[in-house]
Design a protein that fits this description.
Elements: E1 2-6, H1 17-27, E2 30-34, H2 38-50, E3 55-59, H3 63-68, H4 71-83, E4 88-97, H5 104-124, E5 128-133, H6 136-146, E6 152-155, H7 161-169, E7 173-176, H8 184-192, E8 198-200, H9 220-231, H10 235-250
Parallel strand pairs: 1-2, 2-3, 3-4, 4-5, 5-6, 6-7, 7-8
């Protein structure tokens, strides 16, 4: 199994990161830690050093954080991505969040930053990981228009099924998090999506499948199990196929 989107670099794991990673190594073949800020990118790169061959880094800037940060910080993040591109398996997360951001000026800034990261992914022919919340169709239209021949992953997708079909028709990927363990709506989306377009993630420390527990990469098993149940497939088949999808996308 592979957790293609987590945040083990977050301070939530400062007290037990080694134990979390040890549990992950017992069940998974790899994780992709996704940078959400300049500091997050740096911490993701440290994870790559600390857990060589197991932890991989995606470097980006979360769209909500992009509104809060000064432009020079975003520019510095872009510069450091250029400098560390050989240690990177994807650009992201990046994208649009119209749930948290309501005003037009801030949304337009999100779009501008999003396009900057699309340019990065195009330049290096890297996969790009999208955060799209209450803006899934808008994000799809932008990535379709501006991206070149790169892999596109809509992480933790929760948009409408019509847009999900458009995403798949472009041969993009949809990553399902552990939220599927308790969300009937996400089950409906999985029913509609071919297994060859599915990836698995936790988005830890968020979206735990176990009430009262902080999410962690090893819990991605719960997403794999639920997808298998929805698809009426053996768990090992879903594990095998989604794992192959991830290895292909991220070249890991």
């Amino acid at each position: 199994m592979i957790d293609v989107h987590c945040h083990v670099d977050f301070k939530d794991f400062n007290k037990n990161r080694e134990e979390v990673m040890a549990r992950a190594k017992k069940k998974l073949s790899a994780i992709v830690d996704s940078g959400a800020t300049l500091g997050g990118n740096r911490r993701a790169l440290k994870l790559v050093e600390d857990y060589k061959g197991f932890a991989h880094a995606a470097l980006g800037f979360h769209p909500v954080n992009a509104i809060k940060a000064d432009l020079d910080i975003i520019e510095k993040a872009v510069k450091e991505i250029h400098e560390n591109i050989d240690k990177t398996v994807a650009i992201g997360e990046t994208g649009l969040d119209f749930h948290e951001v309501k005003d037009t000026e801030s949304r337009n800034r999100q779009v501008k930053v999003f396009k900057t990261f699309i340019d990065l992914a195009n330049e290096y022919e890297m996969p790009i990981i999208l955060h799209a919340r209450d803006a899934e169709l808008k994000a799809f239209e932008i990535i379709k228009k501006y991206s070149k021949d790169i892999e596109v992953i809509f992480h933790c997708y929760g948009g409408d099924i019509e847009t999900a079909h458009k995403i798949v028709d472009e041969s993009y990927y949809i990553s399902f998090s552990t939220i599927i363990a308790y969300s009937n709506y996400h089950e409906e989306i999985v029913e509609e999506i071919p297994i060859q377009n599915i990836l698995t993630e936790t988005d830890s420390p968020y979206l735990s499948p176990f009430k009262g527990q902080k999410n962690e990469p090893s819990f991605v098993e719960e997403a794999v199990k639920k997808i298998a149940d929805v698809k009426s497939l053996p768990v090992f088949k879903v594990d095998q196929k989604t794992g192959r999808n991830a290895k292909k996308v991220f070249d890991i």
